[in-house]
Amino acid sequence: MWKDAYNQGLKPNTKTLKRLFTNYVKPEYPWMRELSSKVYQYAFINLGEAFKRFFKGWGKYPRFKCKGRNDRFTIDNSGRPIRLGGLIHNLPFLKRVRTFEALPDCLTKKVTIYKKAGEWYISFSMEKTFEPTLKERERVGVDFGIKTLAVLSSGVEFEGLKPYRNAQRKLARVQRKLSKKVKGSQNYSKALLEVQKLHRRVADIRKDYLQVRPVANLILNAESAPIQDDHLYS
């Protein structure tokens, strides 16, 4: 529908998208009546912004997202703050939701729930005041290596990316298995979920090794960190 309108010279915006959805799309899918109106509102806000960026040349044409893939929605509390904290949370429309890890006690305006590799996650923003940390030293040099990821002048070493490379090799094997399955079959769905979980693990390991550990150490223990600018080749 959106592509047809675009081909006719029309430029969809949030208001137009809402009207077309209410009049033509929603009546064809009765299950949509079970959803909170907040889900629609934020979906159209995001889609409208995506079209705006596309028409200004800042981004690509918005990708189609269907039920069961890229599952994600945002809800708010009609202007009232949402209180989070601990393991049990009372969310608008969803009521009581339990998280695997305890969330910090805070107030937020909205939450986004999304599915990734078969598991559901909650995303939100909050305000927090950070106290300055007492640094152990003024400067710490960083030297990147081959066997070790990095060595600090303070003597701290960050191990190499062996777990990351192992996860990549395993991901390649599982992807080859997936390519041999019949698309749409139960075995294909199982293999696809395994691939998605390994993709998530590879991304988590990469982020932990390259961002979280080194950066956290430097922020907590040094005022500045000069980095040796060498070109490394494998």
Structure, briefly:
The protein is α+β, with helices and mostly antiparallel strands and 234 residues long.
Please provide a written account of the structure.
The chain is α+β, with helices and mostly antiparallel strands. The chain has three domains: 2-55, no CATH class; 72-124, no CATH class; 137-224. Helix content is 39%, strand content 25%. The chain has helices at residues 2-7, 14-25, 37-55, 162-179, 186-221; strands at residues 72-76, 82-91, 95-108, 110-116, 119-124, 137-139, 142-144, 148-152, 157-159, 222-224. The protein has a three-stranded antiparallel β-sheet. It has a three-stranded antiparallel β-sheet with strand order 7-8-9, with helices on one face. Strand 4 (110-116) and strand 5 form a beta hairpin. Helix 2 (14-25) crosses helix 3 and helix 4 (162-179) runs antiparallel to helix 5. It starts with a helix and ends in a 10-residue tail after the last strand. Residues 127-211 form the Probable transposase IS891/IS1136/IS1341 domain. InterPro entries: Transposase. Pfam families: OrfB_IS605. This is Probable transposase IS891/IS1136/IS1341 domain-containing protein.
Cα distance spanning the termini: 49 Å
Task: Identify the strand order in the major beta sheet.
Answer: 1-4-5
What integer value in Å does the Rg equal?
Answer: 23 Å
- Helical amount among residues, as a percent range? 25-40%
- Our count of domains comes out at 3
Q: What is the tally of beta strands? A: 10
- Report the biggest beta sheet as strand number plus sense, adding barrel if it closes: 3 strands, antiparallel
Strand content: 25-35%
Q: H/E series, N to C? A: HHHEEEEEEEEEHHE
Tally of helical segments: 5
Low confidence ranges: none
**Mean pLDDT across all residues, rounded?**
80
Oligomeric status:
single chain
Output the structural class. alpha+beta
The shape is globular
